[in-house]
Amino acid sequence: MIVSTSCYRAAFDFEFTVDSALADGDEVAVRWSWVGRHIGDFGGIPPTNENVSFTGITNFHFRDGKIVEGWWNWDNLAMLRQVGAITP
């Protein structure tokens, strides 16, 4: 399943919490938490109204004070299990 970032915004009422951030030169690593409610279609998964939560890490590369690259890693499997798309 390939899902764009805008699909998350349409399918979930959610918020991020930054749990920690570490900087080294022009790179910043951010550990974050995500909580929301599944309110719309998500890659063919109809809304379940389930509460979901998962965690992730994002590494940003800055140049001239602006983000020029970002690498995102999150526990999408946890979210899919919480909306019932995958069973353990």
In short:
With 88 residues, this protein is of the alpha+beta class. Helices cover 16% and strands 53% of the residues. The chain has helices at residues 5-11, 76-82; strands at 12-24, 27-38, 51-63, 66-74.
Describe what you observe in this structure.
With 88 residues, the chain is α+β, with helices and mostly antiparallel strands. Helices cover 16% and strands 53% of the residues. The chain has a 4-stranded antiparallel beta sheet.
Mind sketching the topology for me?
Blueprint: H1 5-11, E1 12-24, E2 27-38, E3 51-63, E4 66-74, H2 76-82
Antiparallel strand pairs: 1-2, 2-3, 3-4
| Tally of individual helices | 2
Structural class: alpha+beta
Q: Give the radius of gyration.
A: 15 Å
On the 0 to 100 scale, the average pLDDT is 91
Q: Approximately how much helix is present in the residues?
A: 10-25%
Low-confidence stretches: none
Largest sheet: 4 strands, antiparallel
Q: Count every beta strand, where a strand is a DSSP E run of 2 or more residues.
A: 4
Q: What's the SSE pattern?
A: HEEEEH
Dominant shape? elongated
User: Cα distance, first to last residue?
Assistant: 18 Å
Major beta sheet, strand line-up: 1-2-3-4
Assess the beta-strand content as a share of residues.
over 45%
